[in-house]
Amino acid sequence: METGIRLAAAAIMFGLLLPAGIGSPEPFGFEPAVACSFMSGKGLRERGGYRKSGSGHQCRTQRRNLIGGGEVNNTIRYVAFGDAQSVTRLELELQVNSRTAVQRAHRALAEHAALLTRSALHTGLPGEIESAILSAVDGQWTVAGRPVTLQRRARPGTVYELSYRIE
What we know:
eight-stranded antiparallel β-sheet, 32% strand
């Protein structure tokens, strides 16, 4: 039995086995085409369909300009990731390119996140997540049993990017 434990520990160390709850996220219970259309009600229509990209599959929308307030606009887009048969991650990406309309951009992301959460998880956007989006504060939550994250990242050529992700 001790040999079995050692083999399992070595397999975990080398990435051959993963403990329960770690590894590839569970697929959502809907077809990729359904996931790709979640944000069409907000004017974010996917382009090109759900197709192979790198080691997985994805569909994405074009970036849509939000009202900026200067020479550049803030933009938002939606991406669904997974394998050929299923979707395992949904993401909204807000690029903040203009400091003059930051609160409007955050509000737009909160509205899009509320629609995505309702469509994917059949529940409303929790108030603490909405507050985090409006404040652009990183966070991790569990909503309807799924991990949800908000991450602010510096990006070249932008003020920052704010990403809302459901896995």
